[in-house]
Automatic annotation (TrEMBL):
GO molecular function terms attached to this record: hydrolase activity
Domain Beta-lactamase class A catalytic positions: 76-205
Membrane-spanning segments: none
Gene3D superfamilies: DD-peptidase/beta-lactamase superfamily
Signal peptide interval: 1-18
Keyword tags: Hydrolase, Signal
PANTHER family: BETA-LACTAMASE, CONSERVED LIPOPROTEIN LPQF-RELATED
Organism of derivation: Rhodococcoides corynebacterioides
Name used for this protein in its record: Serine hydrolase
Domain of life: Bacteria
One protein family per Pfam: Beta-lactamase2
Amino acid sequence: MRRSPTALILLSPLTAVALVVTGCGSAEPAAAAPTTTADCPAPPAAGFDTPDGWIGLAAERPDDVAFVVDTVDTGDTGDTADIPVEAHADRDQPLASAVKVVHLIAYARAVADGTLNPDEQVPLLDWQRWYAPGTDGGAHIAALNRLGIANDGISPFDPAATVRLDDMVSAMVRESDNGVPDYLRYRLGDDALRAAASAAGWTDFTPPTLVGTNLGALDPTVDRDHLWSLAQRFAFDADFRAGYAQNVTPPDEAAILEYYDRYGPRGSADDLARVYRAVADGSLGAGVDDVRRHLEYQSAPEPFTAMGFKGGNLPGVLTHGFEFRGDDGRTAVVVWLTHGLDAADYGAAMENLAAHQQLLIDAATDPAVAPRLACVA
Protein backbone atom coordinates (compact mmCIF):
# COMPACT_ATOMS: atom_id res chain seq x y z
CA MET A 1 0.00 0.00 0.00
CA ARG A 2 1.37 3.40 -0.95
CA ARG A 3 1.16 5.93 1.84
CA SER A 4 0.40 9.53 1.09
CA PRO A 5 2.67 12.31 2.34
CA THR A 6 1.79 14.24 5.43
CA ALA A 7 0.91 17.89 5.00
CA LEU A 8 4.08 19.53 6.23
CA ILE A 9 5.58 22.85 5.24
CA LEU A 10 9.05 22.54 3.79
CA LEU A 11 11.90 24.17 5.67
CA SER A 12 13.96 24.39 2.48
CA PRO A 13 16.64 25.57 2.22
CA LEU A 14 17.03 25.79 5.98
CA THR A 15 17.07 22.09 6.73
CA ALA A 16 19.01 19.56 8.75
CA VAL A 17 21.28 17.56 6.48
CA ALA A 18 24.17 15.17 6.79
CA LEU A 19 27.72 16.45 6.61
CA VAL A 20 30.34 14.64 4.56
CA VAL A 21 34.06 15.25 4.64
CA THR A 22 35.03 15.84 1.03
CA GLY A 23 38.76 16.20 1.44
CA CYS A 24 40.76 14.21 3.97
CA GLY A 25 44.25 15.12 2.86
CA SER A 26 46.18 17.69 4.85
CA ALA A 27 46.71 21.13 3.39
CA GLU A 28 50.23 22.38 2.77
CA PRO A 29 51.79 23.24 6.15
CA ALA A 30 51.30 26.88 7.13
CA ALA A 31 54.17 29.15 7.96
CA ALA A 32 55.36 28.92 11.55
CA ALA A 33 52.86 30.67 13.81
CA PRO A 34 53.56 32.53 17.05
CA THR A 35 53.09 30.61 20.26
CA THR A 36 51.96 33.53 22.41
CA THR A 37 49.01 35.82 21.81
CA ALA A 38 51.27 38.84 22.34
CA ASP A 39 53.03 37.98 19.08
CA CYS A 40 49.87 37.19 17.13
CA PRO A 41 49.49 38.81 13.71
CA ALA A 42 46.23 40.37 12.60
CA PRO A 43 43.64 37.65 11.97
CA PRO A 44 42.71 36.69 8.40
CA ALA A 45 39.65 38.27 6.82
CA ALA A 46 36.46 36.48 7.83
CA GLY A 47 34.85 34.30 5.18
CA PHE A 48 33.44 30.89 4.43
CA ASP A 49 35.29 29.74 1.32
CA THR A 50 38.78 29.10 2.75
CA PRO A 51 40.15 27.59 5.97
CA ASP A 52 41.75 30.96 6.77
CA GLY A 53 38.36 32.64 6.38
CA TRP A 54 36.94 30.43 9.12
CA ILE A 55 39.81 31.44 11.41
CA GLY A 56 38.91 35.04 10.66
CA LEU A 57 35.27 34.31 11.41
CA ALA A 58 36.22 33.09 14.89
CA ALA A 59 38.08 36.35 15.49
CA GLU A 60 35.33 38.57 14.10
CA ARG A 61 32.37 36.81 15.74
CA PRO A 62 33.49 35.51 19.14
CA ASP A 63 29.91 35.46 20.42
CA ASP A 64 28.93 32.97 17.71
CA VAL A 65 31.92 30.60 17.53
CA ALA A 66 33.28 28.11 20.05
CA PHE A 67 35.93 25.48 19.45
CA VAL A 68 38.25 22.94 21.05
CA VAL A 69 41.42 21.51 19.51
CA ASP A 70 43.08 18.84 21.64
CA THR A 71 45.99 16.77 20.34
CA VAL A 72 47.93 14.10 22.21
CA ASP A 73 51.07 12.81 20.48
CA THR A 74 52.65 9.79 22.10
CA GLY A 75 54.48 8.92 18.92
CA ASP A 76 57.11 6.22 18.77
CA THR A 77 58.98 7.54 21.81
CA GLY A 78 56.09 7.35 24.25
CA ASP A 79 56.45 11.04 25.09
CA THR A 80 53.16 12.88 25.51
CA ALA A 81 52.58 16.43 24.40
CA ASP A 82 49.09 17.76 25.09
CA ILE A 83 48.31 21.04 23.31
CA PRO A 84 44.72 22.10 23.98
CA VAL A 85 43.37 25.23 22.33
CA GLU A 86 39.92 26.43 23.35
CA ALA A 87 37.62 29.34 22.60
CA HIS A 88 34.44 29.80 24.65
CA ALA A 89 34.47 26.04 25.18
CA ASP A 90 32.18 26.08 28.22
CA ARG A 91 29.48 28.25 26.60
CA ASP A 92 26.10 26.60 25.99
CA GLN A 93 25.35 26.69 22.24
CA PRO A 94 23.17 24.88 19.69
CA LEU A 95 24.57 21.52 18.59
CA ALA A 96 22.13 20.45 15.85
CA SER A 97 22.77 16.86 14.71
CA ALA A 98 26.24 16.74 16.27
CA VAL A 99 24.35 15.66 19.40
CA LYS A 100 23.54 12.32 17.77
CA VAL A 101 26.89 10.94 18.91
CA VAL A 102 25.26 10.53 22.34
CA HIS A 103 22.44 8.46 20.84
CA LEU A 104 25.08 6.35 19.10
CA ILE A 105 26.84 5.73 22.42
CA ALA A 106 23.52 4.78 24.07
CA TYR A 107 22.89 2.30 21.27
CA ALA A 108 26.39 0.82 21.52
CA ARG A 109 26.13 0.43 25.29
CA ALA A 110 22.74 -1.25 24.91
CA VAL A 111 24.28 -3.69 22.42
CA ALA A 112 27.18 -4.33 24.79
CA ASP A 113 24.89 -5.21 27.70
CA GLY A 114 22.49 -7.27 25.59
CA THR A 115 19.55 -4.86 25.71
CA LEU A 116 19.64 -4.48 21.92
CA ASN A 117 20.64 -6.87 19.17
CA PRO A 118 22.27 -5.15 16.18
CA ASP A 119 20.92 -7.87 13.89
CA GLU A 120 17.32 -7.35 15.00
CA GLN A 121 14.97 -6.90 12.06
CA VAL A 122 12.96 -3.75 12.77
CA PRO A 123 9.70 -3.21 10.84
CA LEU A 124 10.23 -0.33 8.44
CA LEU A 125 7.00 1.21 9.66
CA ASP A 126 8.55 1.55 13.13
CA TRP A 127 11.27 3.69 11.57
CA GLN A 128 8.95 5.47 9.16
CA ARG A 129 6.65 6.71 11.91
CA TRP A 130 9.48 8.95 13.13
CA TYR A 131 9.95 10.53 9.70
CA ALA A 132 8.49 13.99 9.04
CA PRO A 133 8.66 14.52 5.26
CA GLY A 134 10.08 17.81 4.12
CA THR A 135 11.99 18.60 7.32
CA ASP A 136 15.31 16.77 6.97
CA GLY A 137 16.86 17.88 3.69
CA GLY A 138 16.23 14.45 2.14
CA ALA A 139 18.30 12.55 4.71
CA HIS A 140 15.77 9.79 5.38
CA ILE A 141 15.13 8.97 1.74
CA ALA A 142 18.87 9.06 1.03
CA ALA A 143 19.31 6.50 3.80
CA LEU A 144 16.59 4.25 2.37
CA ASN A 145 18.25 4.47 -1.04
CA ARG A 146 21.71 3.61 0.32
CA LEU A 147 20.29 0.62 2.14
CA GLY A 148 18.54 -0.61 -1.01
CA ILE A 149 15.03 -0.07 0.36
CA ALA A 150 12.69 0.66 -2.55
CA ASN A 151 10.53 3.72 -1.93
CA ASP A 152 8.39 6.36 -3.62
CA GLY A 153 10.37 9.29 -2.27
CA ILE A 154 8.33 9.37 0.93
CA SER A 155 7.61 5.80 2.04
CA PRO A 156 8.93 2.28 1.38
CA PHE A 157 6.94 0.37 -1.23
CA ASP A 158 6.72 -2.73 0.97
CA PRO A 159 5.06 -1.87 4.32
CA ALA A 160 5.82 -5.37 5.64
CA ALA A 161 9.57 -5.09 5.05
CA THR A 162 12.14 -4.91 7.82
CA VAL A 163 15.54 -3.30 8.26
CA ARG A 164 18.48 -4.41 10.37
CA LEU A 165 18.75 -2.26 13.50
CA ASP A 166 22.46 -1.61 13.01
CA ASP A 167 21.75 -0.36 9.47
CA MET A 168 19.17 2.06 10.88
CA VAL A 169 21.82 3.39 13.24
CA SER A 170 24.25 3.84 10.36
CA ALA A 171 21.68 6.16 8.75
CA MET A 172 21.70 8.35 11.86
CA VAL A 173 25.44 8.90 11.38
CA ARG A 174 25.97 8.83 7.62
CA GLU A 175 22.86 10.58 6.28
CA SER A 176 21.99 12.23 9.60
CA ASP A 177 18.52 10.70 9.65
CA ASN A 178 16.46 12.42 12.36
CA GLY A 179 14.03 9.58 13.00
CA VAL A 180 16.61 7.12 14.32
CA PRO A 181 17.73 9.14 17.37
CA ASP A 182 14.11 9.72 18.35
CA TYR A 183 13.37 6.02 17.82
CA LEU A 184 16.31 5.16 20.09
CA ARG A 185 15.20 7.69 22.69
CA TYR A 186 11.68 6.24 22.70
CA ARG A 187 12.95 2.68 22.90
CA LEU A 188 15.82 3.09 25.38
CA GLY A 189 14.48 5.95 27.50
CA ASP A 190 15.97 9.21 28.69
CA ASP A 191 17.95 7.61 31.51
CA ALA A 192 19.89 5.51 28.99
CA LEU A 193 20.79 8.65 27.02
CA ARG A 194 21.89 10.48 30.16
CA ALA A 195 23.95 7.48 31.25
CA ALA A 196 25.59 7.30 27.82
CA ALA A 197 26.55 10.96 27.95
CA SER A 198 27.79 10.61 31.52
CA ALA A 199 29.96 7.63 30.58
CA ALA A 200 31.70 9.94 28.11
CA GLY A 201 32.10 12.76 30.63
CA TRP A 202 29.05 14.89 29.80
CA THR A 203 27.27 15.05 33.13
CA ASP A 204 24.36 17.46 32.55
CA PHE A 205 23.03 16.12 29.26
CA THR A 206 19.42 16.97 28.32
CA PRO A 207 17.93 14.45 25.85
CA PRO A 208 16.74 16.28 22.72
CA THR A 209 14.15 15.41 20.09
CA LEU A 210 15.28 16.00 16.52
CA VAL A 211 11.86 15.30 15.02
CA GLY A 212 10.02 17.36 17.62
CA THR A 213 12.36 20.30 17.12
CA ASN A 214 11.61 20.44 13.39
CA LEU A 215 7.89 19.93 13.93
CA GLY A 216 7.80 22.76 16.44
CA ALA A 217 9.33 25.09 13.89
CA LEU A 218 6.38 24.54 11.57
CA ASP A 219 3.69 25.73 13.94
CA PRO A 220 4.30 28.69 16.27
CA THR A 221 1.06 27.89 18.14
CA VAL A 222 2.34 24.60 19.62
CA ASP A 223 3.69 24.31 23.15
CA ARG A 224 7.38 24.44 22.37
CA ASP A 225 8.35 23.40 25.87
CA HIS A 226 6.90 19.95 25.18
CA LEU A 227 8.48 19.04 21.85
CA TRP A 228 9.08 15.41 22.85
CA SER A 229 5.36 14.96 23.46
CA LEU A 230 4.72 16.54 20.08
CA ALA A 231 7.12 14.12 18.38
CA GLN A 232 5.50 11.10 20.04
CA ARG A 233 2.01 12.22 19.09
CA PHE A 234 3.15 12.74 15.50
CA ALA A 235 4.66 9.25 15.50
CA PHE A 236 1.67 7.37 16.94
CA ASP A 237 -1.45 9.42 16.16
CA ALA A 238 -2.19 8.92 12.44
CA ASP A 239 -4.95 11.55 12.31
CA PHE A 240 -2.80 14.16 14.01
CA ARG A 241 0.08 13.31 11.71
CA ALA A 242 -2.02 13.65 8.57
CA GLY A 243 -3.33 17.10 9.47
CA TYR A 244 -0.35 18.62 11.24
CA ALA A 245 0.57 22.19 10.31
CA GLN A 246 -1.85 22.40 7.39
CA ASN A 247 -3.41 25.74 8.26
CA VAL A 248 -0.68 27.71 9.97
CA THR A 249 1.65 30.44 8.78
CA PRO A 250 5.27 29.45 9.29
CA PRO A 251 7.48 31.90 11.21
CA ASP A 252 9.58 34.45 9.34
CA GLU A 253 13.33 34.09 8.97
CA ALA A 254 14.24 35.93 12.18
CA ALA A 255 11.78 33.86 14.20
CA ILE A 256 13.07 30.61 12.66
CA LEU A 257 16.66 31.48 13.54
CA GLU A 258 15.70 32.42 17.10
CA TYR A 259 13.63 29.27 17.46
CA TYR A 260 16.38 26.85 16.47
CA ASP A 261 18.90 28.70 18.58
CA ARG A 262 16.67 28.30 21.62
CA TYR A 263 14.91 24.98 21.15
CA GLY A 264 17.33 22.81 19.21
CA PRO A 265 19.77 20.40 20.91
CA ARG A 266 22.25 22.30 23.07
CA GLY A 267 25.55 21.78 24.82
CA SER A 268 29.05 23.19 24.90
CA ALA A 269 32.11 22.59 22.76
CA ASP A 270 33.75 21.13 25.85
CA ASP A 271 30.82 18.73 26.38
CA LEU A 272 31.19 17.42 22.86
CA ALA A 273 34.98 17.32 23.07
CA ARG A 274 34.84 15.16 26.20
CA VAL A 275 32.64 12.70 24.32
CA TYR A 276 35.07 12.48 21.42
CA ARG A 277 38.07 12.15 23.74
CA ALA A 278 36.40 9.17 25.40
CA VAL A 279 35.89 7.58 21.98
CA ALA A 280 39.39 8.37 20.75
CA ASP A 281 41.31 7.19 23.82
CA GLY A 282 38.98 4.28 24.64
CA SER A 283 38.01 5.56 28.08
CA LEU A 284 34.34 5.32 27.07
CA GLY A 285 34.58 1.60 27.81
CA ALA A 286 31.63 -0.59 26.92
CA GLY A 287 30.48 -0.10 23.35
CA VAL A 288 33.46 1.96 22.18
CA ASP A 289 34.25 -0.42 19.31
CA ASP A 290 30.75 -0.10 17.89
CA VAL A 291 30.83 3.68 18.28
CA ARG A 292 34.12 3.83 16.40
CA ARG A 293 32.85 1.47 13.70
CA HIS A 294 29.96 3.79 12.93
CA LEU A 295 31.82 7.10 13.20
CA GLU A 296 35.00 6.02 11.42
CA TYR A 297 33.56 5.12 8.02
CA GLN A 298 35.78 7.47 6.01
CA SER A 299 39.52 7.32 5.48
CA ALA A 300 41.84 9.20 7.81
CA PRO A 301 44.52 11.78 6.96
CA GLU A 302 48.13 11.04 7.86
CA PRO A 303 49.52 10.53 10.45
CA PHE A 304 46.26 8.98 11.68
CA THR A 305 44.78 5.63 10.76
CA ALA A 306 41.19 6.30 11.88
CA MET A 307 38.95 9.35 11.77
CA GLY A 308 35.44 9.58 13.19
CA PHE A 309 33.10 12.51 12.87
CA LYS A 310 29.52 13.69 13.19
CA GLY A 311 28.33 17.11 12.16
CA GLY A 312 25.06 18.92 12.12
CA ASN A 313 23.23 21.95 10.87
CA LEU A 314 19.97 23.72 11.48
CA PRO A 315 18.95 27.22 10.39
CA GLY A 316 21.73 29.53 11.56
CA VAL A 317 23.74 26.67 13.08
CA LEU A 318 26.70 24.61 11.83
CA THR A 319 28.57 22.15 14.05
CA HIS A 320 31.32 19.53 13.79
CA GLY A 321 32.91 16.97 16.08
CA PHE A 322 35.99 14.95 15.03
CA GLU A 323 38.17 12.31 16.65
CA PHE A 324 41.40 10.95 15.18
CA ARG A 325 43.45 7.90 16.20
CA GLY A 326 46.87 6.62 15.15
CA ASP A 327 48.46 3.21 15.47
CA ASP A 328 51.25 4.79 17.50
CA GLY A 329 48.83 5.95 20.21
CA ARG A 330 48.42 9.56 19.12
CA THR A 331 44.91 11.01 19.20
CA ALA A 332 43.27 14.30 18.37
CA VAL A 333 39.86 15.83 19.01
CA VAL A 334 38.49 18.86 17.18
CA VAL A 335 35.07 20.41 17.88
CA TRP A 336 33.69 23.57 16.29
CA LEU A 337 30.30 25.17 16.98
CA THR A 338 28.91 28.09 15.00
CA HIS A 339 25.52 29.74 15.49
CA GLY A 340 23.87 33.09 14.85
CA LEU A 341 24.26 32.90 11.07
CA ASP A 342 21.66 34.75 9.03
CA ALA A 343 20.20 33.08 5.95
CA ALA A 344 22.85 34.45 3.58
CA ASP A 345 25.77 33.44 5.80
CA TYR A 346 24.21 30.08 6.54
CA GLY A 347 23.87 29.41 2.82
CA ALA A 348 27.49 30.42 2.23
CA ALA A 349 28.67 28.21 5.06
CA MET A 350 26.78 25.22 3.69
CA GLU A 351 28.20 25.81 0.22
CA ASN A 352 31.73 25.79 1.63
CA LEU A 353 31.66 22.85 4.03
CA ALA A 354 34.83 21.44 2.50
CA ALA A 355 36.81 24.55 3.46
CA HIS A 356 35.56 24.44 7.03
CA GLN A 357 36.17 20.72 7.40
CA GLN A 358 39.64 21.14 5.93
CA LEU A 359 40.47 23.66 8.67
CA LEU A 360 39.39 21.16 11.33
CA ILE A 361 41.41 18.35 9.77
CA ASP A 362 44.42 20.65 9.46
CA ALA A 363 44.03 21.55 13.14
CA ALA A 364 44.56 17.89 13.97
CA THR A 365 47.35 17.19 11.49
CA ASP A 366 49.35 20.41 11.00
CA PRO A 367 51.18 21.66 14.12
CA ALA A 368 51.13 25.24 12.80
CA VAL A 369 47.34 25.51 12.84
CA ALA A 370 46.61 25.20 16.57
CA PRO A 371 48.76 28.24 17.46
CA ARG A 372 46.94 30.27 14.80
CA LEU A 373 43.64 29.28 16.38
CA ALA A 374 45.03 30.20 19.79
CA CYS A 375 45.54 33.71 18.43
CA VAL A 376 41.79 34.10 17.85
CA ALA A 377 40.62 32.21 20.94
